[in-house]
Specification:
The structure is a homotetramer. The first copy, chain A, has about 250 residues and is α/β, with parallel strands linked by helices. Chain A has eight helices and ten strands.
């Protein structure tokens, strides 16, 4: 029988600014990636997010991003591998502070946005990120794009990895996500998105924008928690997975 | 025989900006307070600072400050106790990241600048800070101004505390430091500063600006690591303590 | 016949974060206070906000705040008058950049949040702010709390001033606003708020929380543009003013 | 007879952090590029820098950079042309605030660091920057790397431009500067640097790292104001120019 994890970014509010349906989306996902204050989130938001996730018994991961609040961490910044290492250690540490004070454990680490995308294609950056994770705690699971350099780096360093696929994003024939700056980056139709997810989990394949099948591994599915539509979609995905006899559960036991 | 700890703020550089003689001052002190990225410091500086301190076998503490890089954390900000709690957890966590990745342990926590000064007089703020420290790790030692609310809060919460005195600052009759915004806040003459230190350690007393003696406890002495004069002064203080048969050693074994 | 200006804070979004119904509220107000990137707003938001206000022919003012994005500029920071002067010059200048590039003129300056409230009671801070405004352009109108030090400072420096009252905030017997941290700071009932506004404009009086009447001057009324209820309330206030034969128009012609 | 402008970045300190010999370097240069608070500088530093430059009667320009204080604006960030436009308008405006309050005029605009380097090769980015400058004030002079897209964009938009060469940097055969991340990016020997400058001004040529001559235009020479060696070098360059019968004077009269 197939199993898959369902993950979502969480805790992306900042000060007075609110983003996301954090409390509600927790009813659908099995893992959350908590923003750590660089691209989004702040200390108060992080504490509340950790409390929420612990209440709902959802697995918690760090979601380290670039130092770019105004760009929400989505703009590539030409950082060195050493800088990547340092900002990942810092942000995992900061979130661990709240896990220690609230009495929880960190399950995984998933880089955010541009850091995630740059790492997917950059071996040195990926090795620096994986090493940062390993040196803080070798038991942490590294989430990365299926087939990416980040997954390879995690394996090289000796970390457990989880290959991630996206429910509402389209793919290129090399297995990368279609850039958000291009047309057709997002799958607008829910049924299409759900069908893509089911096929990725069951067959390990996705149809690229170029019309060819790409082979991938689907350990965890990323869905989004912000937007008016997020909860309806999350419900739809989860129910469809269950109907397709795919068990939704977190990577760690 | 008297013993005392000698502490210094460290890792206050930021990006291209350099402050302090970090490598050199480590030869004189027994504890360092490492900036955690809010009022000063950044992830790269924090890693290098932790590496330096571990090499020199000097005890490491977190030095959490207000979110005020431009004011170097020295301007009072009207934060709530909950905000104080959250920023302290975050910053201790972040520094712990580097201690974990470099293989070291945190000895203590000392709030920085305006956070330190506000906590000295504000019971609720102090309790929030002490609780943050305790919930992350009850073995951490809380550094605070001798006779302050912060020391009382640490004792209330159940933390080991270290009462701090200042080598080059003058005192008010209520035991508080003379504000940096007022005249005679700093002791300019080194011999006067050293004599004040020796008396604080040996007799537990300091002469206030009002001419009256203030009783205090001197578990740890704060000296500064920046400025052209810092190293000469550090050497002077340390040597004078030894000549006065005061053993300079860290709070923890 | 009575006239009054209706003003609203605008352009408080930041990066991905959205606040306010900026386009809609412009149909009700005659002046807007545009955030300048310190407590809220960013360069892109500022340009769009200026474009919107120019399209709707609403008067534009700068809304300089403290360097405290995470606190939305609402937390008192112990800045010096010189620092207040410098941050006000900077922010007025920055907004003027967009007025120059878009072909518009600045009408007024209204400090934001904690800067506004600190200035209301602090003569030196108010004089520094008023001097900053005057030195950039002596034709600018200074908005401040009716009866405050800021209004007095503007008059001392030689600026035209506009005394501001608040539609949905309660007053203390000394003419200050009830702090947001206290109960009953906000008037929840719309009819009560509107009745207070009408009386302030027509009689120059408001009933304080202590039960005594406070005399004030109502050149401009502040309403809020964020929150689900904002547009309904704005409509209600404007219509009620018109029914009461009060002309709503901007301070400058 | 040959003439050339000598320019230097100024006002790069931030809060407590000090960089540069600002007061001293003003005795050697004829134009300064003032940091505007994004990659360096802050409101107080900007005011003081403007005051210093006005006292010494040196021409003042804006030095807008990327929103990257921790990277000192030297790391490429993947911004859109619209974002470039917005941050340039904002920063020119902010500096203009201090020029207005201090009674001076802006002569030029020179993008900083990564923004300068990205613009040198990116036509769309350059056009956005040039348009921002033009829309604020068409009389401003645009400084850009000799032979770059930025100079072409300035000409396209209708701005006066000044082609810049570097005293202590080596060149590639395509006329670009050797990246600071590569070996031999800097000319370490002062006599070599001075000889390169003289040849660039007199012959309009520089020997590239590939051994071929590159043709360029030298309207203004960039020297650095930070580092122990800066003043000696500035003195050396200026004296050598004068000995070579090259008049050092600002671009505008």
């Amino acid at each position: 029988m197939n199993t898959v994890d369902l993950n979502c970014d969480l805790g992306e509010s900042f000060g007075t600014y609110r983003i996301g349906n954090d409390a509600e989306i927790l009813d659908y996902v099995t893992s959350v990636n908590v923003a750590c204050g660089f691209h989004a989130g702040d200390p108060t938001v992080m504490r509340k997010t950790v409390q929420l996730a612990l209440e709902k018994d959802v697995k918690i991961g760090a979601h380290p991003g670039l130092q770019d609040l105004i760009g929400f961490g989505r703009r590539n910044i030409n950082i060195s591998p050493q800088e990547a290492y340092d900002i990942v250690v810092y942000q995992i540490g900061a979130l661990n502070g709240f896990l220690q004070s609230e009495g929880g454990n960190m399950q995984h680490v998933k880089p955010h946005g541009a850091l995630y995308n740059m790492a997917a294609k950059n071996k040195e950056l990926s090795l620096a990120i994986a090493e940062a994770v390993y040196k803080i705690n070798p038991e942490l699971i590294l989430f990365g794009l299926s087939g990416s350099e980040l997954i390879r780096a995690g394996q090289t360093i000796g970390l457990q990895t989880a290959s991630e696929v996206f429910a509402d994003r389209t793919y290129q024939q090399d297995g990368s996500l279609t850039s958000r700056m291009k047309a057709h980056a997002m799958i607008e139709n829910d049924d299409d998105a759900v069908a893509q997810v089911i096929r990725m989990v069951k067959e390990g394949k996705v149809l690229s924008q170029q019309g060819t099948d790409v082979t991938l591994k689907a350990d965890t599915i990323c869905i989004h928690g912000d937007g008016a539509h997020a909860l309806t979609f999350a419900h739809h995905v989860k129910k469809s997975l269950e109907i397709s006899e795919i068990t939704v559960k977190s990577i760690s036991k």
